[in-house]
Structures are given as structure tokens and as C-alpha cells.
Amino acid sequence: MPKISANNSFQTVITTFEMTPGTCQDLLEALTDAYENFISKQPGFIAAGLHVNDAQTRIANYSQWEKREDYQAMLRSEEMRKRNRIINDMCKNFEPVMYDVARTFG
């Protein structure tokens, strides 16, 4: 489970995917498979969550990594490059962005 805190040293990555309602479930299944069978087993992986909007036109992915280099190594792997080509074909676009937690509330 992701732990959101401004006091952690994790690398946070938020990725948004834009797709049609007709491909949302397929994309969600592909992302779930990627996390269950590959991404979650990579060095430095901490946690992740997948969120779907009510119109099924966007998926937001929140992931945490020990360091940014761990995330980058996973992305550059042959396995993830292959998976990302398939994922890219299912959506209009997707954009991973690295963030630092600035503040938390609640």
C-alpha cells in the first residue's frame, strides 16, 4: 500500500493514461498483469495503486520506488519496453511524471 508522506525519501511516479471507455478494461487488465507479474518484482519497487475515473476514459497510476534509478531501470528493461508498446496501442496517450511529496493532509 502506498505511504504518502512529505518525510519519506521515496521516488513517487504518477502516470495518467487516456483511453476510450471501450478499451479501459483491457488497459486495466494489461496494467494489472504488468504489476502482478513484473513491476512489483523489480528492485526498489515499494507500492502502487491504479485508479479509474467514472467515465472510464482515464486511468491514474501512483507508484513508489526506493530511488528514481530503480524506476528508470524497470522502464528500460526489455520486458517493460515490450509491455509499454502494447499499452501504448490501447490508449490515446500516457505520461509518467516523477514527483516529490510536498505536503499531506488528513
From TrEMBL:
GO terms for molecular function: monooxygenase activity. The keyword Oxidoreductase applies. PROSITE patterns: ABM. Residues 11-105 form the ABM domain. The keyword Signal does not apply. This is Antibiotic biosynthesis monooxygenase. Keywords: Monooxygenase, Oxidoreductase.
